Known about the structure:
- By secondary structure, the chain is mainly β.
- It has a domain at 4-68.
- It contains no helices and 5 strands.
- It has strands at residues 12-14, 26-30, 52-56, 60-62, 65-67.
- A 3-stranded mixed β-sheet has the order 1-3-2, with no helix packed on it. The chain has a two-stranded antiparallel ribbon with strand order 4-5.
- The chain is elongated and about 45 Å long.
- The chain starts with 11 loop residues before the first strand and ends in a 35-residue tail after the last strand.
Amino acid sequence: MTHAAAFPAPVVLWSKPEEERAGKPLLVLLHGYGANEEDLLSLADLLPQEFVVASVRAPMVSGAGFTWFPLTASIDYSSTRSKMPPPTWRTGSMPSGPTTLP
């Protein structure tokens, strides 16, 4: 599998522009196997407007889309083989701690 760094941005799509994200609850959407960050963003329209939605692209290419970890036919799967560096798309404009919804 090829890592997504070989492909152009965006690797995250936002429901709101950067200047409207501060102090809002963040919902991160992770697409399924073989999909991409564009697949789920339309769900943002169904949520209350106070949410900021980030739809993130998985880091590995899988066919016409992407995947979060390599799929194998073996039941001897180890999570250490799929460890990735932490994401770099999160900016300081979002709260660093958990957000509690009323």
